[in-house]
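Support reply, case 0932

Customer input (verbatim):
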Amino acid sequence: MEPLTKMQRRVLATVKEMVSLEGFPPVGAVGRKLRKSPSTITEHIQELERKGFVLRVRRGGNVVVQPLENVACPWCGKPA
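Our regenerated output:
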């Protein structure tokens, strides 16, 4: 597995924190919390998704971020 950059670790930690406090966060909320632009956060989240750490899911008008440890994987037997 590819190592994470410092910023990717910050984004992932923020997503996990937000999930534990308020549920799956929209990408924009992660950006506001880190004081980064939505496009910057989107790039980091896309890389985290490519590396297998998060999953982006469209919910209503938002794209929310789920750490993969919170996602069910029926084909590998992993519960949510």
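We compared this against your earlier run and they match. Two observations from our side: Residues 74-80 have pLDDT under 50 and may be disordered. The first strand starts at residue 54 and ends at 59. Please reopen the case if you see a mismatch on your end.
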